[in-house]
Amino acid sequence: MGAFAVSIHGIEPHLQKFIADHDDYNKIMLQALADRFAEAFAEVLHLRTRKEFWAYAKDESLDVSELVKETYRGIRPAPGYPACPDHTEKRKLFALLGATEYAGIQLTESLAMYPAASVCGWYFSHPQSTYFGINHISEDQLKDYTQRKGMSIEEMSKWLSPILEG
Fold this sequence. Notes:
Elements: E1 2-7, H1 12-20, H2 24-53, H3 64-68, H4 89-97, H5 99-103, E2 106-107, E3 113-114, E4 118-123, H6 139-149, H7 153-160
Antiparallel strand pairs: 1-4, 2-3
């Protein structure tokens, strides 16, 4: 298991110019492009982790369609997504990596990342690792989770509201 955080920096002055010019189209396009570059950077880093750094798949040779289908070994889940819906785990990930110090990524009060074109998550290399989604959790699961995290029910309920049972 490992962790990563990547970001694209430097678009803010350009965004401000587009805002001042009332150029919503180019503002949105630049933001979308920066987001795609951050995702591409995360994908390349995962590839290098599989083939070079951890070298558990050094002979991997996948074409683009196989990469899109994620047929490679291992997964790269991110906090806030269906497999790990708890955004508060970003705090641990950032502390572990020194993501603010080394990558210049900050967490906002709502645990969004700034710059917005940033991606973070974990690497799991086990051959049986697969993505899954956490549907809804019951009250007893919430209580157990809050105890293990050392947080109050109220605070954890706020962060996990999308997956709490009715």
